[in-house]
Batch of 2 targets.
Target 1
Amino acid sequence: MQPIDDSIITFISNQTVMTIATVANKQPYCASCYYAFDPQKAWLIFKSSPQTKHIEDILCNPLVAGSILPDKSSVGTIQGIQFSGKAVEATEEFKSAKNIYHSKFPFALAMNGDIWVIQLTQMKFTNNKLGFGKKISWQAE
C-alpha cells in the first residue's frame, strides 16, 4: 500500500465525524457517523446498527464515498477529505478495528450497533492553508 501523506493522517485523526454516501436500488443516501482512523491499514472505522438506512444500503452495495470536514472553517483555511472505498462489517479479521474505535469513543461501548470498516481506495485532501485549492491525493495500489 502506498504510504498516506502525513498531512492527511493528521487531518483525519483530528476530526471525529464523517459523512458517508451510499447507493442502493438506484437511490443515493448520506449519513453522518463518528469514526476512528487506522492509517496503517487505511481504514475508517464506525459503529452503526443494522436497522439504519446506510447499513441496509451497504449490505446491498458495499461501495461508499464520503467526506470529512473540520468543525469550523473559513474560506482561507478550508480543509477537507473526499474518499471512496468498500464498507465491510468488522468480523474477526478486523478485530483491531473495534479496539481502535472504542479507544477513541469509549462511550460507544454502551451503545447498540456493530463496528464497520471502510477499506479506503482513494482520498483527496483539499488544504487551503497550503495555498488556495491545494490538493494532496492518495490511492491504494
Target 2
Amino acid sequence: MNINLVLEPIRVRYNLPALAGAIITSEGLTAIGAVGERKYGSGIPVKIEDQFHLGSCTKAMTSTLIGILVEAGKLQWQTTLAQAFESEMLPIYRTITLEQLLSHQAGFPEPDQPWLTGKTPMEMYHLPGSIQQQRQDYLKLALQQPPTFPLGEFHYSNMGYVVAAAMAEQVMKASWEDLITEKLFQPLGMTTAGFGPMGTQGQIAQPWQHFEENGQIEAIDPDPDHDNPPLVSPAGRVHASMEDWGKFISLHLQGERGNSKLLKPETLQKLHTPALERGYMQAGSSDSYGLGWIVTERDWGGGRVLYHNGSNTLNFALVWMAAQGDFAVLVATNQGGERASRGTDEAVGALLEVWQ
C-alpha cells in the first residue's frame, strides 16, 4: 500500500518540511510512508526509518510504564504522594493518587505555566544533579505551591506526569529514562526510541525541527536545548521512527483484543478507560481522558476510539486508535504550529479513507 501518494499532496498543500504516516493493527505494521525533506530546502529526502518527535504522545508511554510497575507490585494506582515521598508537602497533596496524576486531576497548572518558581527558561536546561535528583528537587518545590485548580477536576498538565515519573524513580531507584528503555522500548524492539531532538548537531542525519513565523519556515539545529527541558521528558520528549511508534500502538490494540504479551489486557484497558464520567473539554463534549489517552466516539471507528496529539512547538504528532476495528493511524511532521496541526489532521482523515 503506497501511502506516499496520499501524504505528498497534503504535505505540499500545508508547506510542511516532511510528513510521515503509518497504519497499524494488533498484528503490526500494515502501511508506512514518509515524504518531504529532513531539513526544509536542503534537498535531503526523509526516509521511512527516520525518527519523529512525539511530544505529548509520550504520556501514553509513561502511563504504560506505570502499568508495568503496578503489575510487578512496585506501585498501585491508588498509591498516594504521602506514601511515595517523605518530603514535606502541603496537606492537600497528601492524598493525591498515582491515577489522579495520570488523568490530570491533581490540581496542577496548565502546560504553559512556569515549571519552577524563580528559574529562567534557560536555567531549566542546566539544573544541578542527575535527572532523578532534578525531578525530586522539582517535586519538593512544586508540592509547596498551592493547587492551581480544584483536586478531582480535569485540567491538562505536564506536571502530573513528571511527578508520576518521580514516583516510579523513587520506588525503582532508577531514572524514568532507564526504566522506560528497559521495560518498554527494549521488550517491544523500539530501537530508534530516544529523548529530545532527533539526530546530531550540525548534521542532517535525521529530520530537523522547524517553526513557521510570518510565513517563513526556519529549520532548528538539533541542539539538546531545542526542546522541552529533560526534566519534562515523561510528559512529552520521546522521539521514534514511525514503525517503532507503531509497535507501541500495536501493543495497545492487542490489549483491547485480549492477547497482549507485555501487559495484561485488563491493565491496558484501564489506561483506555475514562477516569472521569463527564466530558472535560467544552460543554456537551463527549471527550474524556483516560491515562495518557483521550477517549471519544467516531462512527468510522465503530464507536469508542482513542487519540492524542503532541507537540513541543517545533514538531507535531497525532495518533487515532480504533479498538473495535483493530487499527490505528499515526501521522507526524517535523514542524510545529497551526499549519502542522491542520496538515496532520487532514492526513489522518486521508489515511482512514485508504484503510476503509
